[in-house]
Amino acid sequence: MPRSSVIAPPPLGPLLRRYEDAGEPLSCEPVTQGLLNRGYRLATTRGDYFLKHHLDAPTADRETIVRQHRATQRLQSLGVPVAPPVEDTTGDTVAVIGGRCYALHPWVDGRHRDGAQLTTAESRRLGALLGLVHTGLEQVMGREAERGGAARTYESADPEETFALIDELLDLARGRRPRDGFDALAEHRLLERRALLERHAHRRPPPAEAGGWVHGDFHPLNVLYRGDDRGAEPAAIVDWDRLGVQPRAEEAVRAAAIFFVQPAGKLELAKVRAYARAYRRAAGADCAELAAAVQRVWWERLNDFWILRWRYQLHDRRADPQFPAVSALAVWWTREYEAVCEAFAG
């Protein structure tokens, strides 16, 4: 079931008393709600802040949040546009009050821009920015695995497990009453995807072994831009909750598939090409690494039904509007696989 929308308001008095010069609260308005956190625009007598409530972070997980904060502090010193948290009077960046974890960040004026709003030159800068993130994380976090330094392998999805999930989701979609257009589209895409998987099962990628530190959730809602349409520049990369170790080039491909997907489910390949070339130069990635990442992310998309799982298993419809483009992209990508691979790795 989806999370309850009833969440206690942040304890502003005890929170702000931890900071030397944060001022007195004037207003506190919710600005975003996600699975991992809730955000507020907090106005005080000293200015505006972004207050983040880490919903799924118990006191015991404070160490993970602190690691994320330290990473952004170090990245900022390397010139990466981020918004590290404000330190309190003891130098801490995580406030634990009543068993809940909060962090206070400077407010960044900016707006989100998807790939349709980016020019080719701006797409190139986006690729270079992600490359800077990856090389910067390598400097500040090192090459060790997320916990303990052990080598990891990254398995690709097992189609047999996907077939079982498709059958389950088909039963749920067909059994909905009253049935609507979304349910009909879901049934069509599930049957279509099963046929594609049966046809391409032999193309399942082998396990990946090379991993590096990545943002983990690099998409338009986590990049803020300042400036107008004639000269927008990235102001801040936000939401580092999924900072971790993964194959780096896969994040580059996955991000492009979100930024540059069109409503009809196609990728703007000219912008993808500019983005990918800039990423390869900035990250020091070669064409073979990007080609392997394209195969793995394509396979991931063929086996992924997160939007339908949210709708039918969790009864959460927030992601429903994304389904037409996301589901069409998997089909189009399969048909245009060589063109997509050339755009990323050519």
Topology:
Elements: H1 12-16, E1 25-33, E2 38-44, E3 47-54, H2 62-77, E4 95-97, E5 100-106, H3 120-141, H4 159-174, H5 181-200, E6 212-214, E7 223-226, E8 233-237, E9 244-246, H6 248-259, H7 269-283, H8 287-303, H9 306-313, H10 323-335, H11 337-345
Antiparallel strand pairs: 1-2, 2-3, 3-5, 4-5, 6-9, 7-8
Helix pairs in contact: 3-7, 4-5, 5-10, 6-8, 7-11, 8-11
Descriptors:
two-stranded antiparallel ribbon, single chain, 346 residues, globular, 9 strands, 11 helices, alpha+beta
Give a summary of the structure in a few sentences.
By secondary structure, the chain is of the alpha+beta class.
Strand content: 5-15%
Task: Count every helix, treating DSSP H or I runs of 4 or more residues as helices.
Answer: 11
Instruction: Compute the number of strand runs.
Output: 9
Shape: globular
- Indicate the low-confidence ranges by residue numbers: 143-149
Look at the helices and sheets and give the structural class. alpha+beta
Order of helices and strands: HEEEHEEHHHEEEEHHHHHH
Cα distance, first to last residue? 44 Å
Q: Sheet with the most strands? A: 5 strands, antiparallel
- Strands of the largest sheet, in order across it? 1-2-3-5-4
Mean pLDDT, to the nearest integer, reads: 92
**Rg value:** 21 Å
Helix content: 40-55%
Structure description:
It is a single chain. The chain has 346 residues and is an alpha+beta fold. It is 44% helix and 14% strand. It is built from eleven helices and nine strands. A five-stranded antiparallel sheet has the order 1-2-3-5-4. Strands 6-9 form a two-stranded antiparallel sheet. A hairpin with a 2-residue loop joins strand 4 and strand 5 (100-106). The longest helix is centred in the middle third of the chain and has 22 residues, at 120-141. The protein is globular. The model is unreliable at 143-149 (pLDDT under 50).
